[in-house]
Amino acid sequence: xxxxxxxxxxxxxxxxxxxxxxxxxxxxxxxxxxxxxxxxxxxxxxxxxxxxxxxxxxxxxxxxxxxxxxxxxxxxxxxxxxxxxxxxxxxxxxxxxxxxxxxxxxxxxxxxxxxxxxxxxxxxxxxxxxxxxxxxxxxxxxxxxxxxxxxxxxxxxxxxxxxxxxxxxxxxxxxxxxxxxxxxxxxxxxxxxxxxxxxxxxxxxxxxxxxxxxxxxxxxxxxxxxxxxxxxxxxxxxxxxxxxxxxxxxxxxxxxxxxxxxxxxxxxxxxxxxxxxxxxxxxxxxxxxxxxxxxxxxxxxxxxxxxxxxxxxxxxxxxxxxxxxxxxxxxxxxxxxxxxxxxxxxxxxxxxxxxxxxxxxxxxxxxxxxxxxxxxxxxxxxxxxxxx
Length: 388
Hints:
By secondary structure, this protein is of the alpha+beta class.
């Protein structure tokens, strides 16, 4: 009998992960390192205090170009892509007509009529079909470059010191689709440039998913091992560590960044999920989900995604019930951990809107114990090195 389970894909750095002792696990159809021998706590601390290097080559990259590229983005994404300058990135989301979330994504404007869209690996095929459907009949080119682009994330307060000696800002790029910054130190938050990193043409973006300063490097797939090795060598005097999915999750949760499939999904709207700041209901023109979200905003929300801080080190895992002070189940944890930086349990959770105000006393049922918790607006960790 044939095994119906599809084989897991591997990134171009699979050999490097195994040589470093990475513990490989299935994730979104890929085999990825969840941690290395130093452990999640050490990797987490390295990113907060020095630098960590992540392989996120499983992410999807779509390239959109043409006279109607912006019009397509304004139709399918909730943020206002017309406000994005060339060389700037924007956080956005794709929604259903009901306003629920298909995916969150990053939009990089590489030219007046060209954009790089970076989507979650688990939603790559879904997003491609959705965007392609809305692109029909438009004067544009849409290309899936996911299998040709690797993505490394160098994160931490020493990330710039690690990367700077390897960067040639005035050299010709592999991707002729981005502006040039005169100097890495002048590259602002959510800005990007073309450059060469360890001799490899790259798109270098000052973005990340950790709450720390850092860079995301878009590279030719086959060149990723060369750049990985150069970054690890350059970072050794600074205390760099390779970092896996475990540290990536605890880092993003400390600053309240949502994870699709946990905190964002098709069952909840962008407004309920706390993404109202990117939903531009006031901009001209229609977008998918606009009418439903406008109606919901006017009527008021019945539920919200909130942050919870537990008293002590209780571990609030996804799926654990959230309870009222009287012990009644009122919600559910979507993401949770014991914060390595704070030494306390932290979580994101769905609760009724009337229990969503900061300071509201609730609890998380961990096995048979109700651990006290307080609603708190993320970020939980506020000492990050991001330069805004």
